[in-house]
Amino acid sequence: MDTLSLLKKYNVAAPRYTSYPTVPFWETDRFDETQWLLSVKNTFADYKSEGISLYVHLPFCESLCTYCGCNTRITKNHQVEVPYLDAVLKEWELYLQVLGDKPKIRELHLGGGTPTFFSAHNLEKLINGIISTCEPTNDAEFSFEAHPDNTTEAHLTTLFNLGFKRLSLGIQDFDPKVQLMINRFQTPAQVAEITALARKIGYTSINFDLIYGLPFQTTEGLSETLQEVIRINPDRIAFYSYAHVPWLKPGQRRYTEKDLPQGEAKFGLYQLGKDALLAAGYDDIGMDHFARKHDRLYLAAAQNNLHRNFMGYTHQHTQLLIGLGVSAISDSYTAFAQNLKTVEAYLEAINNGRFAIEKGHILSRKDLKIRRHIRNIMCDGKSLFLDGIPKPAYYKLATLIDDGLISISENQLTVNPAGKPFLRNICMAFDERLWEKTPESQMFSYAI
Asked: Model confidence over 345-397: pLDDT tens digits?
């Protein structure tokens, strides 16, 4: 079957599998805060030497990017910075009390929202407040997301001096017509200037986020964007499918499905981008990611050390991920927890000395087993089933085998080269919670 036919066949609503179970299938009625904190304490005690990961959600943006699916708060009032960061540090103190010992930090990521909404001075206060209570590991990686339109030399220099070596710039598309529809503006010259400055300062890995399937996006426009991106030469690129979920994100109602490239048009954009990046010397890493051979993400993939968590793909692997800030998700490996999703509720809880946890899930033994296989497929392109592949899953895999996307030999599933664009579909075959409770309405974006 040719690539276009495969893309049509497997373009169904599918989770991105940054966790298993996925958030809509968490058993929140069986979860309580005491269980969660005990799981954090136990995982930290068992894996103290490897260090932990920290994610800090900084939700504020000065304007709404209509394509965005993240939890954001739109404001031009920068007086919100200090109260919010003070609350994040208070939340961190609450977790330090649970850990009971000085943690090692192996990974720290600032996401959003727009982390560069915050002044360099206030970000310095935040990071100093965290690292003064812990010890970075020798291989620690600090990274942050930035908007090209408001990232300054002060941001880059301040964060670099605090240990940040990786930067991710949200580009999406340089086509002015697309930018107008998604309300996100930056020029190739701006991005090139920031990239050059970051490299001069000493940043060792720079990522660009690109999206295909945006409103009014065309092959001509995306081709020009790709040419500019390849000329600027970032170390890695995330090339995502636009997730159209207007029932979750009302900002996406600025346009309709008629304005979006559909079917063959969208598949063509995906193939165009993938072909251009491969031709330019980038390697296809996991799902949606491309990297130069010197980048640590590529090296991790080549050595089968790639990891995937709520922050996406990473070369760092820790059992404990603590998420700080509104809507942030934490992972103790045996449990998940998500914070309250509104700034006001989050601040009220933290400022009254309480954790701001809204919901969570305690993983069963079966969850843990399925989670391991899904992680192996997403990161390594293979997984060994010591007890044999479950029959229900095998039946669901039969079509994938017939289409040449996967191979199964001696209880090992291997993703074939033709199957790399369909990792989400392959993982769905093992998602028992999805089988058992088919959603009545669409919960996930389409796979391609």
From this structure: 999 999 999 999 999 999 999 999 999 999 999 999 999 998 888 888 888 99
Look up tokens 């609450």; give the residue: 94
Q: Which residues of 52-76 are buried (b: 16+ CB within 10 A; e: fewer)?
A: bbbbbbbbbbeebbbbbeebbbeee
Q: List pLDDT tens digits, range 26-64.
A: 999 999 999 999 999 999 999 999 999 999 999 999 999
- Comparing C-alpha atoms, which of 229, 213, 220, 224 is closest to residue 280? 229
Query: Whole-angstrom Cα distance, residue 133 to residue 351?
Result: 20
On the CB side of 415, CA atoms within 13 Å amount to 25
Q: What are the helix (H) ranges across 100-183?
A: 120-131, 153-161, 176-182
Q: State the chain's mean pLDDT as an integer.
A: 93
Long-range contacts from 99-103, C-beta under 8 angstroms, 24+ separation: 99/40, 99/41, 99/44, 100/41, 101/44, 101/48, 102/133, 102/134, 102/135, 103/44, 103/48, 103/51, 103/52, 103/134, 103/135
Nearest residue to 96 via CA among 59, 52, 140, 56 = 52
Respond yes or no on whether the N-terminal peptide bond of residue 21 is cis (omega within 30° of 0).
Answer: yes
Domains along the sequence of the chain with CATH: 17-362 (3.80.30.20), 365-436 (1.10.10.920)
Instruction: State the pairing for strand pair 289-291/236-241.
Output: antiparallel
Cα–chain center distance at 292? 19
Q: What is the pLDDT of residues 335-355, one digit of tens each?
A: 999 999 999 999 999 999 999
Non-local (6+) Cβ contacts of 275 within 8 A are none
Three-point CA angle 31, 348, 27, nearest 5°: 15
Helix then strand then coil, in percent of the chain rounded to 5, is 45, 20, 35
Give the Å distances, CA to CA, from 48 to 52, 61, 72. Answer: 8, 35, 33
Report which secondary-structure segment, H or E, holds 48. none
